[in-house]
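Q&A log
Question type: sequence-to-structure
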Amino acid sequence: MKTLNQQNDGHYERRDFIGSLFIMAASAFAQSPVETMAAPKSSNADLAPISAIGAHVCGIHFYSGNMKRQLIAHHYCSHLSDEVLQCVLYDSDKKDARLIGVEYIVSARIFESLPVDEKKFWHSHNYEVKSGALTAPGADEAAEKDLMKVLIGTYGKTWHTWQVDRGDKLPPGHSTAHDGIHQGRAVGSKDRGRAR
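Response status: OK
Response body:
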């Protein structure tokens, strides 16, 4: 690498300085992402919210009002209470899965207590569970049945931050609402919030 040539007045030649910056930038970009963006190592205690995740379910999501745009969403959920679950959503169950959204799941009792204007943002899980559209990958049959007993009768509010079905390399723009499936069809805005 060429070194900067210092002129008599103590200043560096501009051309050499710019050339050095270019070489440093090129070498930084040439490093692998693992080298430049390695995640810091943490103890399990630092990952308390993540280690609280105790369930993995997989379901079909579609963009609000558009049944043609469907995607598989892997939900990794933790209990906040007996009546509230929070789930992080990924586009696969692989190590390099992309975080694509969140879903909040509440009991029917909590859903019924919501204001009418809020209920329109929630969808029932009844059909997804009864139809088999919601599964528990990797769970044995008994564990999957127990998990579905917890989810039947619940309601979910889902926001996707990354529209991976379009091929977006990063999550652009605003997050989008997602709907559930009710009796084999999309739950549109007129269906949302109705007891099913």
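Response note: The beta strands are 55-63, 66-81, 84-90, 99-106, 123-124, 155-160, 176-179, 181-182, 185-186.
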